[in-house]
Amino acid sequence: xxxxxxxxxxxxxxxxxxxxxxxxxxxxxxxxxxxxxxxxxxxxxxxxxxxxxxxxxxxxxxxxxxxxxxxxxxxxxxxxxxxxxxxxxxxxxxxxxxxxxxxxxxxxxxxxxxxxxxxxxxxxxxxxxxxxxxxxxxxxxxxxxxxxxxxxxxxxxxxxxxxxxxxxxxxxxxxxxxxxxxxxxxxxxxxxxxxxxxxxxxxxxxxxxxxxxxxxxxxxxxxxxxxxxxxxxxxxxxxxxxxxxx
Length: 246
Fold this sequence. Notes:
This protein has 2 domains: 18-181, no CATH class; 199-246, no CATH class. The model is unreliable at 1-20 (pLDDT under 50). By secondary structure, it is mainly α. The chain contains 11 helices and no strands.
């Protein structure tokens, strides 16, 4: 029944697609429009990632492979940032993994909503990112809206992020010395943009300040990438302590 607002049963294996019919068309169009807008904004940001990756020493195809397979912006920026600063591959991979681990927590919260089976689990796992999770959680009722928000946002970001990555990396590859553009400044700026919305109270400010202090103290002493890992461990320890107190 179209527009009833209730969840329709669907045959096994059809995943999220049948219940999309159980949405008001204006509601579906608003979600789709917002998803495309998020994809366009993220795609524009991908231009800088592509250029920074090439400036850090990766070629166009290596950069594109990161966006296709890793597909999590913060981790990608961390990886090329550590490599560009002269850090080792292990430090770069661990830093990227630490930042990307949050997507696993997103997946746990979304699993009851998406109810995907079989090969669709692989697609859902690849598209579980900040943007798709936020959109799904912002439209919890009916469940068809949450599923539509997740899939449209995830696909929009995936397509436009990869287009932006290729445009940025290919453009940077045409420049004799892309490192001279000073694009490395976009990496800390991007991390600050990710961090700022999470600083909602004094506790979060204290954790951020502690992590930043540890990173600053260790930067002259350790190889690039390791101070960031140490700061991440500070955040994990703080999260554990806060959880125990709660």
